[in-house]
Amino acid sequence: STLDQSFSLFSGIFIKYTLRQQYSKEFGDISIVRKVPVMKDGGFILTESTAILEYLTQKYSGSVADHWFPADLQQRARVNEYFSWQHMNLRAHCSKVFLLRVRVPIVMDAEIPKETMDFALENVKQSLNLLEEKFLQSKPFILGDKISVADVVAVVEIIQPIGTGFDGFEGRPKLIAWRDRVKKELGEKLFEEAHEALMKSSNMPQKLKNSSSFAQLKPILQKLFR
Ligand SMILES: N[C@@H](CCC(=O)N[C@@H](CS)C(=O)NCC(=O)O)C(=O)O
């Protein structure tokens, strides 16, 4: 069906990841949340990136190395501890800086007040401190010696605002060394490819403004950023 064609195929499972189509009727039929990613496995539809990661690692537990999302009770709980924390912390704060820099000015036709930006940056700083001091401590990865999905989910949140000119890794050698270990484990090529669009995000405002759907998107975005 058209719906299935708009998903990309991953081992028989469809993952919707393309942004901008989330306001279509078709997307609303699969998820009224209207956010990506959305996973569709046969008739089973699942939203929320972290729930999707857990589903996929459990479904393919026979072929996915255990360290990604360990079966061990306490190790798995550590991954979930990070996942629960990050939504309201690292993710919320880094994506706020990202949106303030690339979306809000263009959608609202207004400069961001300095206090708003300073407050957002202060929140990012506190989250990065906690990532270092609580989650990483002196370990190579969040779970210890081996990489897990928690590291992959964490690293992208810090990379998200880099393309807009804010580099959260700056002045943090411990986080830089950890990011480089994650990059090495995933493979440099895959790491660069996965973050390519984000790294080019400084041209997003212009691209968004020139896009054919901007007039239609603007009122929706204005509501979101009010
Ligand atoms: N908690 C959700 C967040 C999903 C989310 O915020 N997705 C963003 C892209 S990273 C999105 O779809 N934004 C489009 C919009 O808000 O219209 C998850 O982890 O999957």
Structural write-up:
With 226 residues, the protein is α+β, with helices and mostly antiparallel strands. The protein contains twelve helices and four strands. It has helices spanning 2-5, 25-30, 49-59, 73-88, 90-102, 104-108, 114-136, 149-159, 173-186, 188-199, 204-210, 214-225, and strands spanning 8-10, 13-16, 38-41, 44-47. A four-stranded antiparallel β-sheet has the order 1-2-3-4, with helices on one face. α4 runs parallel beside α5 and α5 (90-102) packs antiparallel against α7. The radius of gyration is 18 Å and the shape is globular. Mean pLDDT is 86; it is low at 1-11. The site of glutathione (GSH) has 9 residues, from α3.
Taken from the alpha-carbon principal axes, the silhouette is: globular
Give a short account of the largest sheet: 4 strands, antiparallel
Count of domain modules: 2
Number of strands: 4
Oligomer: single chain
Number of helices: 12
Gyration radius from CA atoms, angstroms: 18 Å
Listing every helix as H and every strand as E from the N terminus to the C terminus, the arrangement reads: HEEHEEHHHHHHHHHH
Strand order of the largest sheet: 1-2-3-4
CATH class of the largest domain: Mainly Alpha
Percent of sequence in beta strands: 5-15%
Distance between the termini: 37 Å
Topology summary:
Blueprint: H1 2-5, E1 8-10, E2 13-16, H2 25-30, E3 38-41, E4 44-47, H3 49-59, H4 73-88, H5 90-102, H6 104-108, H7 114-136, H8 149-159, H9 173-186, H10 188-199, H11 204-210, H12 214-225
Antiparallel strand pairs: 1-2, 2-3, 3-4
Helix pairs in contact: 4-5, 4-8, 5-7, 9-10
Bound molecules: glutathione.
Residues 19, 22, 34-37, 48-50 line the site of glutathione.
